Amino acid sequence: MKKVTSKSEFDTAIRSPKITVAVFKADWCPDCKFIDPFMPEVEEKFANDLDLIEVDVDHVGTVSEEQNIMGIPSFVAYVDGKELTRYVNKLRKSREEIEDFLQSAVEVYNKRL
């Protein structure tokens, strides 16, 4: 997963015509660490349909404020610079829930075509 280190990098990444899913997280977050081991496999599974980027809320803080990120980890899908859908809740996210969200983002995107 590509780590975004600035607002301009984030803005460029989400302007893609391909689905870009921003994963908002932080080093100190236990629920973020919980997803780390399986995210490379999840990313590989969806590699043909979308790109995943990592946004550290402590290092690219204005982005999380502008995107109204209140809890982490949060997943927000973008296409052409616009939000497509988001997966945010206060509960720990399982691999299955993340994969379900990514699949639903692909389905929402395909309905637009």
Strand order of the largest sheet: 1-3-2-4-5
For the secondary structure, the number of strands is 5
Q: Measured on Cα atoms, how large is the radius of gyration?
A: 13 Å
**Element-by-element helix/strand order:** EHEHHEHEEH
- Low-confidence segments, ≥5 residues, pLDDT <50? none
Main beta-sheet annotation: 5 strands, mixed
Q: In percent, how much strand structure appears in the residues?
A: 25-35%
Give the end-to-end Cα distance, rounded to a whole number of Å. Answer: 26 Å
The overall average pLDDT, rounded, is 94
Structural class: alpha/beta
Estimate the global geometry from the Cα principal axes: globular
Number of helices: 5
Helicity level: 25-40%
In short:
The protein is an alpha/beta fold and 113 residues long. The chain has 5 helices and 5 strands.
Which keywords apply here?
single chain; alpha/beta; 5 helices; 5 strands; globular
Architecture overview:
This protein has 113 residues and is α/β, with parallel strands linked by helices. The protein contains five helices and five strands. It has helices at 7-14, 30-35, 39-45, 61-66, 95-112, and strands at 2-4, 19-25, 50-56, 74-79, 82-87. The protein has a five-stranded mixed β-sheet, sandwiched between helices. The radius of gyration is 13 Å and the shape is globular. The model has no long low-confidence stretch (mean pLDDT 94).
